[in-house]
């Protein structure tokens, strides 16, 4: 006879980890987190883990704001260093997107974000080594930063375990058992059955497959973006700020060892993949394209050393917004997936919201209505303001 838990969380990515921590802190009973590989083995471990508040919808802005604050105070609150760095972030736009930037920044300011719109001259002051063109403008967010993704995942799990959560790694959930419209247990790969009062499917790119027998084909796709890493030439005096650049279509950020990570803002061209068999390497042509485009902005990168890169996984939905909430027609089952390229920063707010939904308590800045799966069957969905999905 297997054990029984009040809540079973499937997946030890940043979402599962924050949900475990928040459930434990709300005294939600006996909690088990199951991770088929090692924590962070999915999207989370390879994340840029950029924490910014530049969104175009009040719910996303408030969730990002709540989360940035939790990450920034994590070490003070829990005594664990998760590699938080406050670098500031710049979002560059061409003249065609200037009005969107103005409107977004005004909305962010209404919600307490320290953000302003700056022109090409101020950009030049901020980054003297950069090339900026008359007419370009940017949203400047000095509070933005990043964390070390794996340290953040392990940090949350450590706190959850201190609070009594059981974490089992190297243990895969094979199926979810549903009896008379209620999710009642999970079946593990070795055949063990674990009963659960509530099951939370936070399996990232694998979440759709686990739900297929019960919920049909949900609008979640696993796609494969690439990242490239460069080391700026020694002696470069570039400021180590995070950039999103709608003109070159890139984002870049400082990494450990003084490297710079570069990726694309748009994921429209990234192929759909099977998350169990995807190429974790990087195409040399991608590296060359990134270096060429980044050098248009920061010319010293023409002489940068390449440290290769990697292929990774995003889980995307048609409107680049996650699906969070109960699975229709199945009591006791919650889905938390579809964060595409911008979920890491939302982890604390998602943990808080899901813990609230499961225990019938406060959901904090997470508005359940904003993330329901049934929004895709309505006539129109509210996408983000930009054409770049990663910006939300
Ligand atoms: C290259 C890259 C850069 C990114 N940059 C940023 C960024 O700068 N800022 C930002 O906010 N977001 C960023 N993101 C997005 C962010 O990282 C993701 O949205 C987030 O990590 C998703 O977390 P998750 O917990 O939902 O999924 P995952 O991290 O994929 O976790 C799911 C976990 O479930 C486990 N699992 C799956 N199936 C089972 C099963 N059957 N049984 C048990 N366990 C199972 C997996 O092994 C995995 O560990 C980036 C993502 C990538 C890939």
Uncertain stretches of 5 or more adjacent residues: none
The total tally of domains equals 2
Mean pLDDT: 94
Determine the fraction of residues in helical runs and give it as a percent range: 25-40%
Q: For the CA atoms, what is the radius of gyration?
A: 21 Å
Summarize this entry quickly.
The chain has 392 residues and is α+β, with helices and mostly antiparallel strands.
Characterize the structure shown:
By secondary structure, the protein is of the alpha+beta class. The chain has two domains: 4-49 and 149-218 and 319-391, FAD/NAD(P)-binding domain (3-Layer(bba) Sandwich); 90-142 and 222-316, 2-Layer Sandwich (D-Amino Acid Oxidase, Chain A, domain 2), CATH 3.30.9.10. The protein is built from nine helices and 21 strands. It has helices at 14-25, 58-72, 74-78, 98-110, 120-126, 149-162, 207-215, 284-297, 347-359, and strands at 4-10, 31-35, 50-51, 85-86, 89-93, 116-119, 137-141, 145-146, 166-169, 173-179, 182-188, 193-201, 221-223, 226-231, 242-245, 250-254, 260-264, 305-311, 314-316, 323-326, 333-337. Strands 1, 2, 9, 10, 11, 12, 20 and 21 form an eight-stranded mixed beta sheet that branches. It has an eight-stranded mixed beta sheet with strand order 6-7-5-15-16-17-14-18, with helices on both faces. Strands 3-8-4 form a three-stranded antiparallel beta sheet. Strand 1, helix 1 and strand 2 (31-35) form a beta-alpha-beta unit. The longest helix is centred in the N-terminal third of the chain and has 15 residues, at 58-72. The radius of gyration is 21 Å and the shape is globular. Bound molecules: flavin-adenine dinucleotide. Flavin-adenine dinucleotide binds next to helix 1 and strand 2.
């Amino acid at each position: 006879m297997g054990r029984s838990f009040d809540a079973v969380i499937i997946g030890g990515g940043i979402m599962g980890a924050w949900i475990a921590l928040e459930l434990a802190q709300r005294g939600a009973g006996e909690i088990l987190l199951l991770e088929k590989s090692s924590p962070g083995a999915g999207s989370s471990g390879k994340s840029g883990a950029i924490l910014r508040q530049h969104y175009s919808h009040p719910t996303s802005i408030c969730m990002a704001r709540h989360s940035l604050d939790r990450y920034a105070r994590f070490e003070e609150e829990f005594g664990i260093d998760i590699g938080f760095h406050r670098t500031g972030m710049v979002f560059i736009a061409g003249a065609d997107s200037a009005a969107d930037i103005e409107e977004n920044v005004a909305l962010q300011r209404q919600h307490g974000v320290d953000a302003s719109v700056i022109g090409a001259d101020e950009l030049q002051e901020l980054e003297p080594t950069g090339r900026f063109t008359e007419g370009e403008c940017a949203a400047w967010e000095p509070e933005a930063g990043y964390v070390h993704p794996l340290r953040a995942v392990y940090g949350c799990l450590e706190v959850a375990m201190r609070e009594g959560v059981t974490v089992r790694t190297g243990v895969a959930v094979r199926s979810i058992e549903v009896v008379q419209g209620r999710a009642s247990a999970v079946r593990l790969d070795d055949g063990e059955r674990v009963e659960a009062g509530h099951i939370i499917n936070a399996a990232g790119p694998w979440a759709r497959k686990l739900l297929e027998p019960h919920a049909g084909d949900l609008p979640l796709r696993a796609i494969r973006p690439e990242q490239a890493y460069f080391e700026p030439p020694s002696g470069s005096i570039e400021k180590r700020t995070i950039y999103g650049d709608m003109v070159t279509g890139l984002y870049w950020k400082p990494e450990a060892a003084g490297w710079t990570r570069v990726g694309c803002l748009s994921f429209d061209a990234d192929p759909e993949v099977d998350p169990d068999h995807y190429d974790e390497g990087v195409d040399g042509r991608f590296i060359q394209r990134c270096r060429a485009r980044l050098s248009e902005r920061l010319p010293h990168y023409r002489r940068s050393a390449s440290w290769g890169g990697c292929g990774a996984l995003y889980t995307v939905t048609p409107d680049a917004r996650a699906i969070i909430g109960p699975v229709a027609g199945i009591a006791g089952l919650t889905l938390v997936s579809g964060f595409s390229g911008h979920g890491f920063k939302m982890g604390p707010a998602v943990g808080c919201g899901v813990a609230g939904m499961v225990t019938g308590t406060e959901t904090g800045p997470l508005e359940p209505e904003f993330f329901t799966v049934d929004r895709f069957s309505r006539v129109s969905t509210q996408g983000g303001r930009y054409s770049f999905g990663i910006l939300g």
